[in-house]
Amino acid sequence: MTNQIAAQNSATQSPREVAVRASHVTMDFGGVLAVNDASFELEKGRFLTILGPSGSGKTTLLRMIAGFQKQTAGEITINGKPVDAAPPHRRSIGMVFQKLALFPHMTAAENVAFPLKMRRFNPRQIAGRVDQFLDLVKLGGYGNRRINELSGGQQQRVAIARALVFEPDLLLLDEPLAALDVKLREEMQLEFRRIQHELGVTTINVTHDQREALVVSDNIIVMDGGRIQQQAEPVELYRAPENPFVAGFLGLSSFVEGTATADGNMQVGDLVVQGEPADDFAAGTKVLAAIRAEQIRLAGTREALGNCDMKLEGRVSDTIFEGERQMYVVEVGALSGATFRVYHHDPDSFGLFHVGDTVALGWNRRDLKIFSPAA
Ligand SMILES: Nc1ncnc2c1ncn2[C@@H]1O[C@H](COP(=O)(O)OP(=O)(O)OP(=O)(O)O)[C@@H](O)[C@H]1O
After folding, report:
1. Which of 117, 281, 333, 354 has the most CB atoms around it within 10 Å of its CB?
2. Structural domains present in the chain
3. What is the ipTM of this complex?
């Protein structure tokens, strides 16, 4: 039955149809610009995550999309219609929040049936539809359990079924996994992805968890200070951050300040550091370079590094055991004492280097991105 829904969805959806469009949306809370001139498009059937630190404006943007809050400037449309055209209960939006707001005195099945009753769904078809959606979230057979007889993860599944049972045009998720322990959170991230793929429902998820964003999304918007910093697919966002904020927020990056050279590299003291310019900047301007911890190679000597465009020597100032890998902090005197954080995961040599050791570190030119600091 779920496959039938997916088939219907894919038959009726042209892949390029825009489901949600925000144009120059601003929310000014009496001088606090919670969202500042945000514009984006989301195609039908895609999974978008709005990612950003606390206070970056994610929830405010989501609340405006849901129609709970009216923007002070700009326009938001869902399937071409302004979001405030209908009262919240008449809109075709399913929602799951961190507080699940399930009805504790009702059974799982009664909770899932609730939106159908509210929407005056044909009573003879309710039980079948509820079973179908409990199956979808792998709770077939749990329909008669009361909410307090279910685990946290199972309650989460009931909330998902309840949000989707009336086949909304849009599913909105506001940090629904934030309160779960890590294992369960990772399991539910994959579940969200599976269910979304199965139903093809257009979804917007809000989180500050970068791993979650990378795992579940087709498309990610990174926000900071109320502004959209970048919108891209996960791999592009990770590989080609457009500014230092995005480079620092996703993954673990180290930063070095310097001056742009005429050929697009960076000068620090007497040393020219090879990198890839991520912006247009004039020779002599101040720049900021970023490199990810897993893109730096570490060895006892420069020769042992093998082929690297850039090779430097440094001193280990800290080593941190992270289970599946070791993280080294290396200070490079030739770069005015800049520190680099480097992941190393050779299972045979976790204890390879110690604090105080001199080590060689190297990278390839394309992996060090050079930005204008003001970008
Ligand atoms: N009703 C309000 N009145 C005044 N300021 C508000 C209001 N709601 C949010 N803000 C402010 O707007 C900014 C963005 O808040 P928002 O809740 O959207 O951020 P967020 O990215 O979702 O953060 P978190 O991850 O902590 O939930 C914050 O500075 C917040 O204090």
Report:
1. 281
2. 2-239 (3.40.50.300), 255-371 (2.40.50.100)
3. 0.96
